């Protein structure tokens, strides 16, 4: 396994577990974390032996935001010329499904990192928010857009303008997270979900992800057309035959991921 400075990466069968590891700063997302996460996810994304990636933090903090101490001295040209945070977009471009397992603080960039993942599972201790406005800035890793699409204008405006936080129960009601579990069950649940996804046909899972993702990029008619093309395409895979044969034979499918 490759060594990273700010994260650890473990393989769990066909799933992978990526853990943010900057406990002294509550996993604040500095440029090194961005580089490490993006490099690790891209390496896993190239590996057909990996069918799902879980990203998690510590019990106290998924990530308490972008690194305020690193950003503090920067000027406009520093931010513009280095295109600060743009590399995070590459996480959203991963084709392998991703799961964010959030315990504790997911604030600012932490909330945005969670929203870059496909499935968001929260511990009952999770706290979400976009408190950037309290620092005199605004979200910079897509939060104003992804939060609004996830939970709608009313709550997104409330969170982004007041900087208030949202607990796990409110986040689930609002549709930001798909499941809330007791904190001590978070990792088990996230890895079980990842194991389930990773056992599916990899190309089919990639196409399902791509199809749902398309809903955020296009009109309904174009999105349905896109889905239909992919739906027809899965009939070119061996896994379609295997999945349907297994159903007819009343046995579990054994996907070959192709
Ligand atoms: N950046 C840097 N260091 C941090 C951060 C952070 N975001 N969050 C916590 N830390 C550090 C603290 O400074 C402290 O370090 P030290 O021990 O050296 O003083 C250590 O982590 C522990 O933190 P606390 O002592 O504050 O722990 P508490 O339990 O008292 O409080 C909180 C926890 C409530 C999470 C608190 O740390 C906090 O409010 N953190 C900041 C949250 C925040 O505002 N996040 C948003 C940051 S901005 C952002 O994410 C996006 C900016 C977009 C910019 C766009 C640019 C293109």
UniProtKB/TrEMBL annotation:
Annotated GO biological process: fatty acid beta-oxidation
Keywords of the record: Fatty acid metabolism, Isomerase, Lipid metabolism, Lyase, Plasmid
Keyword Magnesium: no
This protein's record includes keyword Transit peptide: no
A Pfam family annotated for this UniProt entry: ECH_1
InterPro entries: ClpP/crotonase-like_dom_sf (IPR029045), Enoyl-CoA_hyd/isom_CS (IPR018376), Enoyl-CoA_hydra/iso (IPR001753), Enoyl-CoA_hydra_C (IPR014748)
PROSITE patterns: ENOYL_COA_HYDRATASE
GO molecular function: enoyl-CoA hydratase activity; isomerase activity
Enzyme class, first EC level, given as a word: lyase
Catalytic activity: a 4-saturated-(3S)-3-hydroxyacyl-CoA = a (3E)-enoyl-CoA + H2O; a (3S)-3-hydroxyacyl-CoA = a (2E)-enoyl-CoA + H2O
EC number: 4.2.1.17
UniProt record similarity statement: Belongs to the enoyl-CoA hydratase/isomerase family.
Record's function text: Could possibly oxidize fatty acids using specific components.
Full protein name: Probable enoyl-CoA hydratase echA8
